[in-house]
Structures are given as C-alpha cells and as structure tokens.
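Form 7-S
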Amino acid sequence: MPDISAGIAPVIPVDRSSPLPLHRQVYIGFRDAIVRGDLAAGQRIPSSRALASELEISRFPVLDAYSQLLAEGYFESRVGAGTYVAASLPARDLSRSRHAPAESRPTSRRSQLFPRYQQVPWRHGWGAFGVHQPALDQFPFEIWARLVTRHSRMPRASAVHFINPMGLDAFRDAICSYLRTARSVRCDPDQIMVVSGSQQALDITARVLVDPEDSVWVEEPCYPQLRAILLGSGCRVTPVPIDREGIDVAAGIRLSPHARAAFVTPSHHYALGVTMSASRRLQLLEWARNANGWIIEDDYDSEYRFESMPMPSLQGLDPTNRVIYIGTFSKVLRPSLRLGYIVIPADLLERFKAVRFSMDIFPPYLFQEVLTDFMRAGHFARHIRRMRALYKARRTALTESLRKEFGTFLEIHGAEAGMHLTVTLPEGYNDIAIATRAAQEKLWLWPLSPCYASANPRHGFILGYANVPEDMIPAAVRHMRQIVAPE
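Output:
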C-alpha cells in the first residue's frame, strides 16, 4: 500500500461565505476524493495542524472533520504514525463513470483507425527469448555514467537553451560520419534529424509523405507498429509478399500500381530475417523512379551480420533521392535510450522540420551530448564489434539447440543477421495460445502471426537471443520444447 510520508490532501475549496460549516467542507472534500479514487487505501493524510495551516483555517474544523471520517471508517489512525485512508476500503476506482464504454463517449474518427493497444504477456518479460533486448550486462555503463555525469554537471549553455527540431549539430555530425563509413549512406549532417527512436521516425515520415486514402506498400509480414501508424494516418495499407529475395516488387505493382510509398527493411527483414537481394533493390528503386513514389528504409539492426560484412544501405544505391533512411540506437545500445535518426532528402527538409516542430519541438539534449562523446571516443564502434562476436556465438548456440531439440519440426529463418531469428510451426499450431502459456512459465516467445495482415498467417515465434547467455540457451530451448511440442 502507498505510504506518502508527508501526507497528501485533495484539493479542498474552502468558502468562508458558504452556509456550510468549515468542518463539513473539509469532510466532504476528503470523502468525495476517497469515493472518486483520488485517495487510495493506505495513503497517508496530512496532520490536522499541517492541513489547517495549508487551508489557512483554524485547526478545530479540521479535527472535527477527521473525527467524523474516522467514525465512518474512511480514515484510520495508527499509533505513532499518523492518519491514513482506511486500508480496508476496496482498492479500486469506485467511480464507474471514469470507465464508461468507449462507444458512449465520442472520440475522433482518426483515433479509431489505430488498432487497439493490448497488454500481451510476452512483451513485458525479461529473459529468453525476449525480442529487442540487447546484452545489457555487456554494456560499458561505467564509461557511459562518466559521460552522463560530465554533461550533467557542466552543460553547455548552447545545449541547455538549444531549440532545433533537427537535433544537436555535433551529434548529427557524428551520426553522419558513422553512416557514411559503416552503412554507405550518402548524406550530409544537415540532412539528419534526431528522433525518439524508429517509431517516431516512421510516424513523422508518414505524416510528411502520405495523405489519407493513399496506398502504401508494406512487407507481408511486417512490424505490427508500422501497420498501426499507417492505418492511423488513414492510408490504404497494401501487404506485399516476401520471398527469399525480399519484397516481391512485381507483386506490389500488380496489387497497387499507384502506391505512394513502400516501407521496407532490406538489410534484415522484420520478422523473417530475409536480406533483400541486389536485383530486388534495383527493381524497387526503378519502381520508385517510375511511379514517383517514396521508399522508406528502416535499417533497425543492420550492424549485426554474421556470415558476411554488413550489407550496404539501399539509400546508398539511390541516384534519384527517393529513399528516406531510418536508423536507431535503441536496438544496439538499449531500448530506453529512445534515440534514432532520419536521413532526409534535401528538398524535403523544410516539411520534415515543420512536422517535427509541431509534434514535440526538439529532442532532449543530454543523451545526444553523451552519445556524441561515446561515438567520437570510439566506444560505440568497439561495443558494436564486441557485440557482433557475442551475438554470433549466441545465435550459433540457439540454432544448434533448436535443431537438436526440434529436428525438422521447426523451420528456422533469418539466422544470418540481427538480434533475433524466427521459427515457423507446422500447420495446426496456434502461436498466440502457446506464447500465452509460455509467458506463465517465464519464457517469452513472441508470436509471428500478429505480423501478418492476411486472414491466414503463418504461425511461429520470433526468438530474441541477444540477452541470453550462451550457456543458458540449451536449457531455455528444452523448456521451449516442453511447452511447444511436449512428448
């Protein structure tokens, strides 16, 4: 139960001109706050002396009100500890009107386009095989803490008062140098916008490029939150099938020849892990040129490729500036960092700035400063190299354990890169039901089927391995087999 040491009082409007006595006004103020649920069972109440001083009234009306609330069971007194809202009161919101059915309370039509948010059990657990979970125990927190402390103690005035929807100049310069070298991205620092992760990047990009009723291509399957963003913008989402070479451009042209944009993950498809072939990349760029369309390249975890060097970006192949490139530090460093970036064609910069400024003005400065130093001192590159070797070992342990425990029962996809791989199940298995059961046993199997828009999705699991120590993987896979395919 909550225990607020100083005690918290609800807002009690005291009206000395009212015929209602002061003690009654105080009593009603507390009683109504408890009934509404504003004050929770077990929450500490200010002393009568403190409340009287705050309300600028005599202490006696407060004592009378407290006495009545104690008598009626709203308050309880604890010897030597003070006065509290009675712990025996139901720990729930007693005001049903707060939770009236949605259909009885009008909301915008646009808000109803977004898929309903669901608290799914596999999303919030930490451990095998949670997705988007890096090896936090390997992160150089001591170095990071020193940099945070330095910039917290001695912030530059230009950073503290900095207002630029694009982000800090020094950080954008560091990102630009990294992208040119590591990802073959063609850009200048002025083209880079700092955002709160790839999710915001996708949202801003959709606001700039597409109108309601525009058709857009998405990969089938795809990242579910991308589909949510596009549906919320009023787009007509066209799922385009994925094969071993990536998005089927010819199928996209047949399904929606006049699409406004294509959202793709060419380096490591989410969720099947396919790397788009060179021929498909050139076909996609040719489509964008002929259709006057846009390509949005989400390069979310391209740093980790195990069988060859990381694939160069699609944006680097684009001679006509039709590709908007999106990247993130949340995957390779930690999810709570919420730092990503967009590489924007020069002629679209003003539109992107306008949309960004209207959303949240500019990104917080502190972690931009910290990550700038982290990158310039070489810590970022060293961390990526270390994690590439570590994740490769964990990926190998996972694939070997899966083959040992499951044989040909599961088909493995996308093990060549990234921080996760995907397995697909035979016909007749329900991945959501299995994942729900697994979560009850602290095993976090992310179902594949929600990534599909079609009525007949493939069932399987997206298995994150980055945060699972190599020696723990075999036992976790045995546990998985006991749940998925018990003998």
